[in-house]
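Appendix B. Chain record.
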Amino acid sequence: MKKIDSLMQVVKFGLIGILNTVIDFAVLNLLMWIFQIYSGRWIILFNVVAFTLAVTNSYFWNKLWTFKVKDRREVSEEFTKFIVISVIGALINSSIVYSVTKFVNPIGNFTPEIWANVAKLLATGIAMAWNFVGYKFWAFRKGSN
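Structure tokens predicted for this chain:
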């Protein structure tokens, strides 16, 4: 039964991750389109804004649905842990997006816009794995607060 519960957490986390990824990519692409910037320092700011909106959405869905944390006396401690994990995830995510768009030439006929999205996809997968482990075993761990 415990394996099924853990599997369901992974499935729920994945579904929420898809929603967050849509939010993340949509905001990033909107900002890149508005400002016509696809690499360099500004992409870090765009990525942080997009990631922040997605991770805020993630907090509420994961707290209430994935990890079913509904009654906590120490919400501020839980949220602080969530933010610490998420900020590290944002640093991982932004570092990858910046590095790939700045230092790696697009493969094939990818435009700068598509290449930025390839970088974002790679960054999202790595940051998502980090976030799941951190949320499950630290931020939303039952009995940890």
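Further analysis of this model is presented in Appendix C.
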